[in-house]
Fold each of these.
Amino acid sequence: METLKVEGKNKKHKVLLYAISTCAWCRMTKKYLKDKDVAYEYVDVDLASGEDRQKIRDDITQRGGEPSYPTIIIDDKTLITGFRKDKINEALGI
Amino acid sequence: MTSLEKVRQRAENDAKTYGYYLNPDPAFLQDLLEGLRKNEERYGYASCPCRLATGNLELDRDIICPCDYRDPDIIQYGTCYCALYIRNDVYEGKTPITPIPERRPPEKQVRAYTPTAVPQKTEQKAALLQTGPSVGKRLWYCRQCGYVVFREDPPYVCPICKAEREMFAEIQIDVRTRE
């Protein structure tokens, strides 16, 4: 599955974002990470193939999350559902 | 092509009808309306911009904006899933806007994750004609006001008299022929 990479000076954590291209909360999350200069990768799930959609869903549910967007996975271990600034800040130490 | 202005007008009118407000953040609202316009263009109907659609009308019917979950979500949380529609106290800033949990049942969400789900590049309106997996639609009526609906599930709230879902009963049609 191909992810799109967004550059940022803060590369301390591996940040993966599952988003929907039309979703305002997802856009807000992307903007927030960009504003904080955090490097991250993302997939717009609505633009992904049916097979990739399944992989994404499995990835989220195997980590105990719900397939709801945005979903942010930090360092392969912390999963955050929804644009929750406090949780993102905590996980990224910002 | 549906214009952004038309989408905005439709949402404003619907908010007025139901006594709701639209999100007061102009940029956030703009994103949501643009998302609705985009979905109408790619699927042929204004599917929820914050949820994953299949591109098959039958399977996405419950998430066409305003979705089936809007009214119960606004009652419980003050906003719909996207925070496009919001309650009076939220509009006035007395209640903050935060992400809310997904009310849509998992068995309906899962439909968007099959290889046959149409993710993009659907010809405009073509999705409406597409044949594919269907859902069992049934006739339901509101025992309070008589409103009748032919859908998979009864609405959470009756759009006519605002009765709760429990007030709905299935209509069993008995077809007989005379000998």
Amino acid sequence: MDQVFVLLRLWLVSFLPAAWQPVIGALLSVVAIVCLFPALFALTTVFERKGLARIQNRLGPNRVGPFGLLQPIADGIKSLTKEDIVPLSADAAVHFLAPVLLVVAVFMGFAVLPMGRNMILVDMDAGLLFYFAMSASTELAVFMAGWSSRNKYSLLGAMRAVAQMISYEVPLLLSSVVVVMMTGSLSLTKIVAAQSGFTRGLPHWFIFTPWGFAGFVMYAIATTAETNRSPFDLPEGESELVAGYHTEYSGFKFALFFLGEYLAMFSISGLGATLFLGGWSAPFSFLTWIPSWIWFFSKLMLSIFVFIWMRGTLPRLRQDQLMNFAWKFVLPLCLLNLMVAGLWRFMGDGWLRWVICSVILIGAYTALGWGEMRRGKIGPRSYRYAE
Amino acid sequence: MTPLASYLLVAALLFSIGLAGALTRRNAILVLIGIELMLNAANLNLIAFWRYGPHPELLTGMMFAIFSIAVAAAEAAVGLGLVIQIHRHAKTTDLDAMNRMKG
Amino acid sequence: MSFVFYILAALTVAGGLAAMLLKNTVHCALALTVAFAGLALLFLNLDAQFAGFAQILVYIGAVAILVVFAILLTRGSETPRDGVFSRTWLAGLLIAAGVFAVLGWAVIGSVRVLPHETAVPTVTVLQIGNALVSRYVLPLEIVAVLLTAAMIGAVIVAMHEKEGQK
């Protein structure tokens, strides 16, 4: 049951001559990824709208299909049949290529995620570096979209989005580097394999160590900012910037941007599950009979659920607040996390290293938090009434 | 023609294109773009010689190229900062107009 | 030579030519990005995976964005009055052609003594890491100091000057 997809692919490929088998096998995996993740995206859009609606004390879409579950089909038909308006003064070639580049770069990131035991498309030695290289290419697509529309709001939205994505790229990379340091490899299959044992019932996932927990929290913050999700969604805030860098896009191109954003969310959550939550391994040793791909996708959907929850709960951050947060709070904590992880490695086994590492991390967090809060004097609330 | 010679010719072509651009364009930023092309051509040369030369297990060529990428990024940052500051002062990035030392 | 190499070489050279010949500065920066991508693929063709991915991450993910930000902040997207090539363009072109002639002659003249195909070197990231902290630790530390100095320098150079007393 665990290897059902791998065996299915091998059986399908065995009908072909031996020279073609690797290529067609890889092609089948690519087709599976390209079909599965957009389907998951469609399901996520309806979950997000219903989830946000319930948090805001209203019902979500409930007209199309039972409980609104066929809403994505209606949305898809709408975006495909809308007129594709390109502004007259827009730069046509760049305007067309921006969503294409975004979706291509995001799809390439799925190639290195291990979605189950033996279910990785390309097992590269430098897999994590490849993933971050593809994620860095999406920033250029965002800029291209904003600039080519020849619209001040789009350009402003694009500059803000790119500045935000670059600022949070550094904490993202640094919190992943902690995992690489402790595992000794950039290959994602080795990182999952390093988290696969069980000690007294608890798994060896990196989130259950002090440096892993701090790293996971910072990774989560950095991913919400990288994918422009609330509370970091100023670049696409409706009340500020119309729609930010995708103002001038309509119809299918807008659907491509939407798809790209959600697919980026999926792949970065998948990477977070691989790095910190143990990838496809089960949480308890008596649950290993459940197939590995079910564990991976449940961790992914759990992260998506937390994203939707944060979107409905937290207010939006201002641009200077989020840049301050990145460079003055998250980045020093990430660097300290690296040193604490090194300390953890060399202190040997036992309860002492737990205590010391946790104390250092919690102390630094509170100290930096006091330092940041003291800057803005928050006095008692005062009211001024019109005369 | 050996594969190494083809790579070296491509690198030489890219280098001379970058050099031509750096010497003929007016905008200061395009001169910096030409310089980046030249650095990349040199990186291609390094990696090609690492791959086809003796002792690739010593990693000399790859290390050199990686350090060159890092240094080129730093140099692009400082160069572009300078261009921005010059634009603030002289209100133009036209290199033909900046032919005096007097501010 | 293989088909893949010709396509990649054509892509890279076309990107470089477009970067130097186009009128619109932002289009030049985007063509430069295409050239960077072509070069990264050439590195992958040469079995240098780490260098190829580092090229994409650093050049396309950071340097290209830096270039377009600088173009936007200096209003480079407006076409200048006197054309895009400087007055002395012919001299520059001749110099570049001369450089290419010399380099091309050197390469073609030495085809006989260049090394031939060797076996594919297996390079793991672990070996690169080991080399960085054992044999190349001095360049590593110097590059770290250089990057810090460049970062501080770029911030100071591009900072707004304070009005009034300095």
